[in-house]
Design brief:
single chain; mainly alpha
Length: 130
C-alpha cells in the first residue's frame, strides 16, 4: 500500500471514529436516596402456657368459664363437649351441633354462675346431641 493511500485511509477511519464517539453529556445529579424505612415493630410474643397448671374438671364453675377469653372459652367448651361425649359413651358426634351446645352451655352458665361448668355441658349435650 502506498503512503498516500494509507494516510487517506487513516484519515477516513479516524474521522469515522470521531463521528461515532460522542462527548459525554453532563451527568444528571443522582436521585436522592429514598428515605430510610423504619424497621417493623416486632410481633407480640405469645405468653407461654404455664406448666403443670391443674384445673378441676368437675370443680370449674360457670362463672370462671365465662371470664375466659373467647379463644380459651372455645377451647374449654370443645373439651367439655368431648368429655360429655365420652361420659355418654358416644361413638359419633354431630360436629354441626357443637356451636349450639356451646351456646346452650353459655346461656346456662349466665343464669347459674355458681354451678359447675361440667353440669352446663352435661345439660347442653343432652339437649343438642341426644
Amino acid at each position: 500500500m502506498n503512503g498516500k493511500t494509507a494516510f487517506v485511509l487513516l484519515g477516513v477511519l479516524s474521522g469515522s471514529l470521531c463521528a461515532c464517539v460522542q462527548p459525554p453529556e453532563a451527568a444528571a445529579p443522582a436521585a436522592p436516596p429514598p428515605p430510610p424505612v423504619a424497621a417493623p415493630a416486632p410481633a407480640p410474643v405469645a405468653e407461654p402456657t404455664p406448666g403443670n397448671r391443674w384445673v378441676s374438671i368437675q370443680g370449674a364453675t360457670c362463672e370462671r368459664l365465662l371470664e375466659l377469653s373467647p379463644d380459651d372459652r372455645a377451647a374449654a367448651s370443645l373439651f367439655y363437649v368431648g368429655y360429655q361425649a365420652a361420659r355418654f359413651r358416644s361413638r359419633v358426634i354431630n360436629v354441626a351441633a357443637i356451636p349450639n351446645a356451646e351456646e346452650w352451655a353459655e346461656s346456662y352458665c349466665a343464669e347459674h354462675p355458681g354451678r359447675p361448668a361440667v353440669e352446663a355441658f352435661r345439660q347442653a349435650y343432652r339437649q343438642t346431641f341426644r
